[in-house]
Design goal:
Layout lengths: L1 E4 L2 E8 L32 H13 L1 E17 L7 E16 L14 E6 L3 H4 L3 H16 L1 H4 L4
Antiparallel strand pairs: 1-2, 2-5, 3-4
Amino acid sequence: MVRRAGEGWEVAVIEPPGEASAGHRAKKSSQKMVLALPKGLVDPGEKPEQTALREVREETGLVTTAITKLGDVKYVYVRSWGDGERVFKIVSFFLLRYVSGEIDDVTSEMRVEVKRATWILLDEAPRKLTYRGERDMVKRAQEYLKSHSEVEHGTR
């Protein structure tokens, strides 16, 4: 989810609640704040693009419009709860443009998933986002925006 600001493009990111991520290298300390892109499960009868719009609204408080699909990230993780089962996930990412709303205007129920939502400069996102697949999607968004000037002018 991007918007044009005085310094350039900004992207909306979330900080999940809980402990900082000790599994990722931090520059000055042993722990680093986790910053991620909004995402979530596809509801029954919902298309992935609709999910992206809904999840961004729920997790950031922002209303957006879809520009294009950026791609999919596939990964496996082991559940840290219950049976410790290996889970295969595919996350589809879309480039969305800001329409309205205030960042971090989320319901109290959503605070279980989102400690805070904030804007960061798109150019800084590849260094600040915690997960490699999300950093790759931000780079795709940067490339798309550079080659599609109509997005900047709001015609797309």
